[in-house]
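Weekly structure sync, notes
Attendees: PL (lead), two postdocs, one rotation student
Agenda item 3: pending single-chain targets
PL asked that the sequence for the first pending target be pasted directly into the notes so everyone works from the same version. It is reproduced below exactly as submitted, 141 residues in total.
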Amino acid sequence: MKDTNCAYCMEGALVAEFGIKICELPTSKVYLFKEQSHPGRVIVAHKEHVSELVELTAEQRAAYIEDVCKVANAVHAVFHPNKVNYGAYGDTGHHLHIHLVPKYKDEFEWGGTFEMNPKKTFLTDEEYADMIAKLKAELGA
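Predicted structure, written out during the meeting:
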């Protein structure tokens, strides 16, 4: 079931405020986060409108985590971060999604919790397209 007030369910203008769709995987939709203070930051949103991992069956949960891992591997392959941080929130947007936030030593926020939306780094359409093409190629999408 879709929630008409949910950016991930409705996509379009709602999701375009913060992300660009990269592709769909078996259980998820993958978005490039427009704010790129952490180069390669993406969101893996579940295809169903559920709020938390506990709302999924064990099989659904395992399949979703497989998608998250596939995307994390692509982020590592394309952007070569020292670490990827994972954040699953949803206090205000009740749709299961995980932020994959690449972290780089000696750069922005290394050693600390990432800032949700620091609004420091936005790219050109061409730069976003290049990042998306590289991730799609790595994901086989």
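Discussion points:
- Residues 58-79 form the longest helix (22 residues).
- The radius of gyration is 14 Å.
Action: rotation student to compare against the earlier draft before next sync.
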